[in-house]
Amino acid sequence: MISFDFETYSRCDIRIAGAYAYADHPSTEVVCMGYAFDDEDPQIWIPGQPFPSEFLDRIKRGEDVCAWNSYFEMVIWNLVLKKDPIPFNQWNDTMALAGAHALPLALAKCGEVLGLSEEQSKNKRGKLLIQRLSKPQRDGTRNTDPFLLEEFYAYCKQDVAVERTIRNKLRNLTSSEQKIFKHDQELNWRGLRLDTDSIDHALRIYQETENNLNEEVIRITKGELDSTSSRAKAFAWMATKDYRMPLVDGKPSYTSAAVQEAIDSPACPEIVKEFLKIRQQLSQTSNKKYHKMKDTVASDGRVHGLVQYHGASTGRWAGRLIQPQNLPRPKHKNVDELINSMPENFKGMDVQPLDALTSCLRGMIVASPGNRLICADFSSIEARVLAWMADHGRVVMSFVDGKDIYRTTAAEMYSTPYSEITDEQRFLGKVATLALGYQGGERAFTKMAQAYGAFIDKELAERVKTYWRQANKPIVNLWAEFERSAKRSLWTEKLEKTQVGNFKVSHSGGSELLFQLPSERVLIWQNPRLAINEKGWEQLRFDGTDPRTRKWVTRDTYGGDLVQSVTQAIARDLLAEAVLRLEEAGYPVVMHIHDEIIADVPKGFGSLKEFIKIMCELPTWAKGLPMQADGFETQRYRK
């Protein structure tokens, strides 16, 4: 195994551009490369020196290479050093291993959690060295201080050692997971084509519209304000109009919900409503994605490195850069017409420019020349997996029969024939399906309903929760089984079986709670233990990354939460295996988002029907799972 790490210099900001566009930038160059063969001491190579011949010889012999966040090393190797590409199946990534172990994805933090000694840990001066030597100084010049460079070389070698130490503490990916990781690297290298001309038009329209709206702000406020961005200044101006924004936690709020509430309020003066409507338009953060697209697109017209393998502890991928999983759904149906009218500022289209730009965002993703996009997504995948896991026969059969799951849920909740369910009952069935499947209660139900624009009082929410749990006892029983088995595995340190997998405690390199999925992949919870919570109940706890703050914290879990993790992990495995099958059948996958797969396919090859058929093939471990997918073919991405 060859372990290696690059340190680089560039005028391009990698945090904005992403790794591929950074490596593609003409100013990017290698400062040094740290490397080590097997367990030997790390060495350093500096441009200008002969490149280590043993390094190249080992690669030619098929030896594996490994790095922390190996995609960065890959793009530097290919685009900056311009060496012969290392085959994808020779790449290994210790950060990917850390993700698979539910450990932090930052090298220093991962080492800290694993208890590495100070000598084994990442050099804390690294950030300072990178600021000084990897970026231009404030005056635009490059720092070439020889003493700092010597320290930088030592830092690079230390990173190689730390990465290798961490790798030696972790289990390798299974052969099947290694194939999935290989495809992840291939997909990120392949990239996704963007319509760069239309992105330029969108940015021009956005700037012109923003200027016009800010001129309106100046007119409305008689020069007191020149934009809507300052919360304090906006509130002060509203006070002169005898108006105060709606309160949240006892304080005036400037959130989108508060702005809409003020606009809808008869008490709000018309001139303030005008101002707030401008605020509404300018605060559409989705349109900032046009800037991100412009910043991250490489010289080949594609954006690369969009997904992070094992970005979530369940194994699901996390979005990066333009984060396509967060692109808003179009509000307008005629998106192609809107995009075609961009050069003339949507002339002849009865639209508000910023709303139209939001609707056009997905359409910036396009097929390569001579190709078309084939897109398909699994239908209600989590609901199907959950019912299958719980052996919930009636729900599974409703999927097999092609019935509407929300109507089916409502029929069971209200003991009413499927054909007689009203629209209101179906809506409650929908919210219940989405909010209650993982042991959510009244608050989860009302919050989900609010997301759909409906206010549900506490009494009705509590009643619906009770109806749902009575109608879905196999799922309720599954929550209890998972919590009971996880706790028992901690008590006894023996294998505890559930109907879909097994819990087990491991003490290799630290305490872990393992769950073997039907696919034989293993989910991991770090440092599991039992504690007494503030209510006096026995609580299952573990250490993990907070999904919001990204900090390493103590987290509580329970039956429904464990079921959710396993459900999402199984859904992920179904998608991952479908991606590999599609690639094998000749469909080049360029993106996948939770339950959706997008391929950039030559015209005349394959079909949507075959694409969906391959997607829905069941692995042997998923016998009886009622799979279904829907999709479309297009030149521009939409949904």
Description:
- It is a single chain.
- By secondary structure, the chain is an alpha+beta fold.
- The chain contains 24 helices and 21 strands.
- A hairpin with a 5-residue loop joins β15 (512-516) and β16.
- α9 (196-220) runs antiparallel to α13.
- The two termini are 44 Å apart.
In short:
With 639 residues, the chain is of the alpha+beta class. The chain contains 24 helices and 21 strands.
* Fraction of residues in helix: 40-55%
Cα-based radius of gyration, to the nearest Å = 27 Å
Contiguous uncertain segments of 5+ residues: none
Derived structural class:
alpha+beta
In DSSP terms (H or I, runs of 4 or more residues), the helix count works out at 24
What can be said about the biggest beta sheet?
6 strands, antiparallel
Which range does the strand content fall in?
A: 15-25%
Strand line-up across the major sheet? 13-14-15-16-17-18
In round numbers, the mean pLDDT is: 94
Distance between the termini: 44 Å
Shape: globular
For the secondary structure, the number of strands is 21
Topology, element by element:
Layout lengths: L1 E8 L4 H11 L4 E9 L5 E3 L7 H8 L4 E3 L2 H11 L10 E3 H7 L6 H7 L12 H8 L12 H24 L5 H16 L1 E2 L2 H25 L10 H10 L6 E2 L2 E2 L3 H9 L5 H13 L6 H8 L5 E2 L3 E2 L9 E2 L15 H6 L12 H8 L10 E8 L2 H9 L3 H8 L4 H10 L8 H14 L5 H10 L6 H14 L1 H20 L3 E2 L4 E5 L5 E5 L5 E11 L5 E8 L6 E6 L1 H26 L4 E5 L2 E7 L5 H8 L13 E6 L5
Parallel strand pairs: 1-4, 4-5
Antiparallel strand pairs: 1-2, 2-3, 6-9, 7-8, 10-11, 12-20, 12-21, 13-14, 14-15, 15-16, 16-17, 17-18, 19-20
